[in-house]
Specification:
The protein has nine helices and no strands. It is mainly alpha-helical. The protein has two domains: 56 residues, Arc Repressor Mutant, subunit A (Orthogonal Bundle); 127 residues, Tetracycline Repressor, domain 2, CATH 1.10.357.10. The protein is elongated and about 60 Å long.
Length: 200
Amino acid sequence: MPKLWDETVESHRRVVRETVEDAAWSLVTEHGLRAVTMAKVAAAAGLSRATIYKYFADVESILAAWHQRQVDVHVAQLTALSEVADEPGRVLRSVLGAYAEILAQRGQHGPELGALLHRAGEHRNSEELVDELLRRVLTSAVDSGQVRADVGVNVLVSYCRHALGGAVELLSTEGVDCLVELTLAGLRPDSSRQEPCEAR
């Protein structure tokens, strides 16, 4: 089969999948998870049920695919911010700010939908990519003297992850911004500390 044909077919499949995913997400956010059926998704997407069953087994699998697409977009966004040629402290601030905003969006899903979208272990590879990205940005900021060097970088990554995790519970942009500032304050060099803190 010619390569152009393969690409056209794959492009069509991607469009169909994304149309179904977006339709399901729109229905769930408007009516709630329990109110959405495959028939309703098909009608909203303008497709037959038979067509969407070729791609997805149920509503949950559609939402999982939608969420993975969002995760991929977020990882790409954070990666782009981390690679900006700028002063390390500003790069760190922009990465942590964007990461906090992503977590704040997660908090808007509600408990039932949030539990479905964020099952333990399902996005481990993406989380590892974010950890590596944070490790790289933090290392650069440590080397430039803008982040404390008395703590191992893996501890700093864990600190940022947990500190910014509180953004899930915040409803305002101001609250998220404040959390980012508090996190950055904890990263600044502390001349009063004499003994290095070893990573555990």
